[in-house]
Amino acid sequence: MSQRVCYNTAESLATHLLALFSGTAAPAMNVLLFEDEFVSRLYPITTGRPAFSTSCGSFRLLDWVEAIFADQASASVRPHLQALLQSDHRELCRNLQPTETWTLCLNARLVPSRSNLEKIMQLAANPSPLVISPGPQTIAAAIVPTANLSRCSLADCSQVNLALQQFAQNLTSSPAHLDLFDYPHDVIRQNQRIFDENLAFRLSGDRYREIADGVFVSGSVTISDFVVTNTKAGPIVIEDDTAIGPFCFLRGPLYLGPRTRVNEHAAIKDYVSIGHTTKIGGEVESSVIEPFSNKQHHGFLGHSYLGSWINLGAGTCNSDLKNTYGEVKMDYSGDRVPTGMQFIGCIIGDYSKTAINTSVFTGKTIGVCSMVYGFVTTNVPSFTNYARSFGQVTEMSPAVMEATQKRMFARRNVLQRKLDVELLNAMHALTQKERQMAEEPLSL
Fold first, then answer.
1. Percent of the chain topping pLDDT 90
2. Mean pLDDT of all residues in 345-365
3. With a threshold of 0.90, does the pTM exceed it?
4. DSSP codes joined into one string, 44-80
5. How far apart are CA 428 and CA 133, in angstroms?
6. Which architecture does CATH list for 185-436?
7. Secondary structure class of 318 (helix, strand, coil)
8. Is 58 left (phi over 0), alpha (psi -120 to 50) or beta?
9. Could you give the CA distance from residue 89 to residue 76 in angstroms, rounded to a whole number?
10. Half-sphere exposure (CA, 13 Å, Cβ side) for 419?
11. DSSP label at 396?
12. Tell me, what DSSP letter sits at residue 174?
């Protein structure tokens, strides 16, 4: 999933983080972001993006790594993301430097929290053989002699994982704890947990100016008349080139990324993290919205995650609370997973769309590249036309999504590349099992 940033004159996030970390010396070692065998459990969030590009609490793990380890970092991702990595994150395609004795390996599923970063910096300050393994076959982080990875091709993340598992066999796991995303709903849970510490970190520099009590802006921001803000529970942070229409209500903690457009009469409140180049309207609560997505009409979005290039039709609403007020259990590939959470809305993969007045039931996932209509009472597989309430569920052709992608990109002045089309086809192949496991047969 292309995450090309379209900031205008705003300084890059990496530059801002470097300023905040001035005086903090990055350890002299290689740094390797790696995707492990459990990254597929995060589908549809990670179907078309590296796990380290997942937004949570207004940051991505990639943001931290690019800022702190700018000239030392490499990445090993799944094969279908190699072209995307080489094009959009070329700086991560470097080989490990054999002159560096140690390599700090970071799981791409690490939660991008300030507390996680501080623990990583402490571990790396005095390098020695180390592994943090919170469960079987899971490595959250490791400090490995670079020689142990010398035979691995970073283009093959399975080789990296095998080398790390072999290294870990000879060590006792450190008692240190690092938070990981294990399932998609963890992004929603962790977003609320880390939001305050991450916003406090953002505001610890001099990039933002306070224009009202607890309201901080960077660059050029347009705020219309009759906008009401409430910052009793946390600050509101607004990035460059953002415009907020009249008669809006904003309640912190809240983060609005660059080039956000908030339409009139919108209500955005409580742990909402919005990526760049988005259009927002209606009511949004405790949700993460990735770049280039639109939810600009009336309707409710709560305790949810939206990928990139999503469009929610007017009147689309989701439920984030069961009528019994009980714990929400999520259905992932046929497994019922208890979340420990009372409030969970929906998780929607990149490129998916909803029609007007679509209603999404509590705790449902919608895969990538799907078109959704009516009542969403079951999980929606990727590449599906879902109109179950009308008796129609059919498979979506990658060719249709290719044409749709081209039109969407053109609207945002983004060029459709060959690798974007190839990624769509790879995503279709990767999600074939979802369509085979659907609760009703698909018309092909």
1. 79
2. 97
3. yes
4. TTTSSS-GGG--BTTB-HHHHHHHHSTTTEEEE--GG
5. 32
6. 3 Solenoid (2.160)
7. strand
8. left
9. 12
10. 16
11. P
12. P
- As given in the structure block, the two tokens for residue 349 are 């993969």
* Alpha-carbon distances of 155 from 159, 217, 257, 378, 440, rounded to whole Å: 9, 40, 32, 36, 38
The tens digit of pLDDT for each residue in 40-52 reads 999 999 999 999 9
Q: What is the predicted pLDDT for the residue at 192?
A: 97
Give me 153's structure tokens. Answer: 């091709």
Rounded to an integer, what distance in angstroms lies between the CA atom of residue 213 and that of residue 216? 8
**CB of 38 within 8 A of CB of 138?**
yes
For residue 236, what pLDDT band results from cuts at 50, 70 and 90? very high
Residue 151, exposed/middle/buried by CB under 10 A (0-12, 13-18, 19+)? exposed
Q: Which of 190, 185, 192 is nearest to 344 (CA)?
A: 185
C-alpha to C-alpha distance for 409 and 418, rounded to whole angstroms: 13
- As a dihedral over the C-alpha atoms of residue 149, residue 152, residue 157, residue 160, rounded to 10 degrees, the angle is -30
> For the ranges 45-49, 246-250, 291-295, 331-335, which has the lowest average pLDDT?
331-335
For residues 296 and 313, is the Cβ–Cβ distance under 8 A? no
List beta partners, residue 236. 215, 254
pLDDT, one tens digit per residue, over 136-176 is 889 999 999 999 998 999 999 999 999 999 999 989 888 98
Say how far apart CA 356 and CA 167 lie, in whole Å. 53
Q: Where in the chain is the domain with CATH 2.160.10.10?
A: 185-436
- 8 A C-beta contact, residue 289 and residue 304: no
Token pair 């990035």: residue: 239
Question: Exposed (0-12), middle (13-18) or buried (19+): which is 18, by Cβ within 10 Å?
Answer: middle
What are the pLDDT digits (tens) for 376-417? 999 999 999 999 888 888 999 999 999 999 999 999 999 999
Dig out the tokens for 278 from the structure.
Answer: 């988005």
